[in-house]
């Protein structure tokens, strides 16, 4: 809504209303903060966190480049839209979104709003399937405030640590493949899955672990979960959102992305595993070499030969 408001050059009062919603919901997202700050409506919050790190953390590169070299920033914008933006949403399973009510397309309105604010040359994206080029150039009367990210200091805003607990009491075997920083998360997830009504569970977790992008409606989730056989998949989704698990589309080669796979085992000798879900996505993680867990609830786990991948 914020991006569309900027692209359509809505009345300032409408953007101000949206800032109140952002503050109320404590959204804490760097892209949202930049858009609102640049709109020069009195909004001053600025974070270095992203609601979804992949792909949105890469927008910072575009913003920073635009401050020193708009031509290079335009090139980075093109690369982002052509090679990174859609891939960064594979975990949302957008391939079926066109079947859902209210479908309007796979549009990167926030990227278009950034291009408008930064006055970037976006002609190379005129025919891009996900970039609303015409909206960027629909109006050109709104004035934006120059935002220099280097003037903001984020040293006290490190990533919030998960609450550390001693183990995963609801399934201790998972401690072999899940780093301690997420024990609390997984404990709570298991407990809630086993004790909450499906509708309540869906509402609690639809944003925090991304299930609202897999099942657009609570009813869809409830139907899929009729046999109560989704817990392993839900844990995979939760740890994918937190960048422990790397998710790739079946068409993507692991070789191209393996360097982006984070290792949270503090120098321990590790091996690569794959979580086998019943969809067209592939999920990978580094785990301790001695870990030997054949499955995580309904999700089968297989070792991946890294030498074959490379």
TrEMBL record:
Superkingdom of this entry's organism? Bacteria
Q: Where is the signal peptide?
A: none
**Coiled coil stretches, renumbered:** none
Which SUPFAM superfamilies does this entry report, sorted A to Z?
Answer: PA2201 C-terminal domain-like
| Pfam families referenced in this protein's UniProt entry, alphabetically | PoNi_C
Q: Which residues form the PoNi C-terminal domain?
A: 28-135
Q: Read off the InterPro entries from this record.
A: PA2201-like_C (IPR028983), PoNi_C (IPR015025)
What is this protein's name? PoNi C-terminal domain-containing protein
Organism of provenance: Bacillus thuringiensis subsp. konkukian (strain 97-27)
């Amino acid at each position: 809504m914020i991006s569309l408001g900027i692209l359509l050059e809505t009345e300032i009062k409408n953007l101000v209303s949206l800032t109140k919603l952002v503050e109320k919901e404590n959204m804490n997202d760097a892209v949202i903060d930049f858009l609102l700050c640049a709109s020069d409506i009195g909004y001053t919050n600025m974070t270095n966190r992203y609601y979804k790190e992949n792909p949105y953390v890469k927008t910072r590169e575009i913003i920073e480049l635009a401050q020193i070299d708009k031509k290079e920033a335009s090139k980075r914008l093109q690369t982002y839209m052509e090679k990174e933006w859609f891939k960064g949403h594979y975990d949302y399973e957008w391939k079926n979104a066109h079947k859902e009510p209210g479908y309007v397309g796979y549009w990167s309105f926030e990227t278009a709003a950034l291009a408008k604010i930064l006055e970037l040359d976006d002609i190379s994206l005129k025919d891009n399937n996900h970039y609303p080029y015409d909206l960027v150039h629909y109006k050109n009367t709104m004035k934006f405030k120059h935002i220099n990210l280097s003037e903001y200091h984020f040293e006290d805003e490190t990533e919030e640590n998960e609450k550390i607990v001693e183990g995963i009491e609801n399934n201790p075997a998972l401690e072999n493949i899940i780093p301690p920083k997420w024990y609390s998360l997984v404990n709570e997830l298991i407990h809630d899955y086993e004790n909450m009504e499906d509708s309540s569970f869906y509402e609690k977790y639809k944003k925090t672990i991304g299930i609202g992008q897999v099942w657009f409606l609570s009813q869809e989730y409830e139907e899929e979960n009729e046999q109560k056989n989704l817990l392993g998949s839900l844990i995979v989704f939760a740890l994918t959102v937190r960048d422990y698990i790397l998710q790739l589309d079946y068409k993507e080669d692991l070789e191209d992305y393996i360097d982006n796979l984070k290792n949270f085992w503090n120098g321990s000798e590790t091996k690569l595993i794959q979580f086998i879900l019943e969809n067209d996505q592939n999920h990978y993680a580094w785990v301790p070499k001695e870990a030997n867990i054949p499955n995580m609830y309904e999700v089968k786990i297989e070792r991946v030969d890294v030498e074959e991948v490379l």
